[in-house]
Write a structure and sequence with these properties.
CAP/MinC_C, Septum_form_inhib_MinC_C, about 220 residues, 2 domains, six-stranded mixed β-sheet, Pectate Lyase C-like, MinC_C_sf, Alpha-Beta Plaits, Probable septum site-determining protein MinC, alpha/beta
């Protein structure tokens, strides 16, 4: 489905596998995004969004991108990356918003490939992972569309995305992939590990909003998104 506003502002949605919205604004007025989101059917099923700034030729303030991200969060959507930032590249970097390089951002297949380097090998869990349960994506990313309870374990060869409260053990890059990341929307994990570099609960700050864990020069980093 596509939604077009303001002579070209388009929202494309894809509900198979990883539900997402691809946003291409034609001007910097935030009310068009808010209006478009209010018209989107099955909005509660969406979990992620990308932003394509191909039509934004001006240098905007960090507050503009923060407002977009805040609006998406109010609609339970995570901004997972920006295409074609142009003059706003450094602002995206300073706000820790991933810059994406796919040249065909509106293709449902290509979006799935961006989120997982090998979509066909990704594992998507649509139910909560409860205490005593283990889920493992041995060949790709792991996407959990629910919570991870204390005593539960989520592991993957590549990155892990948990779109719910994350309180269990999270192990990304299980085969030594140092580029793997862990994304959570909130929670206080018992353990996080990326490519064998591990933190226990006492090393982790409670996430009251979206956080990412990743390696930088061999050190595990936790950052707010």
């Amino acid at each position: 489905m596509s939604i077009e506003l303001d002579s070209g502002t388009i929202l494309n949605t894809q509900e198979k596998n990883l539900p997402y919205i691809s946003i291409t604004p034609h001007n910097v007025k935030s009310q068009y995004l808010i209006e478009a989101l209010s018209k989107l059917p099955n909005r509660s099923q969406m979990i992620a969004a990308t932003l394509d700034l191909i039509n934004i030729k001006t240098l905007e303030s960090p507050a503009w991108l923060r407002q977009i991200r805040a609006t998406l969060r109010q609609n339970n959507l995570d901004l997972i990356g920006v295409f074609n930032p142009q003059l706003n590249l450094e602002i995206c970097k300073s706000l820790k918003i991933p810059v994406l390089s796919e040249t065909t951002p509106h293709s449902p297949t290509s979006l799935a490939q961006r989120i997982s380097s090998d979509h066909s090998k990704s594992t998507i869990i649509t139910k909560p992972v409860r205490s005593g349960q283990q889920v493992y994506a041995k060949n790709g990313d792991l996407i959990v569309q629910g919570s991870l309870s204390n005593g539960g374990e989520a592991a993957a060869k590549n990155s892990i995305y948990i779109y719910g409260k994350a309180n269990g053990k999270i192990i990304a890059g299980a085969n030594g992939n140092t580029h793997a990341r862990i994304y959570i929307t909130q929670g206080y994990p018992e353990l996080v590990s990326v490519a064998g570099i591990t933190w226990l609960a006492e090393d982790i700050s409670t996430a009251h909003g979206p956080n990412v864990f990743y390696l930088n020069d061999g050190q595990l980093i936790q950052e707010k998104l």
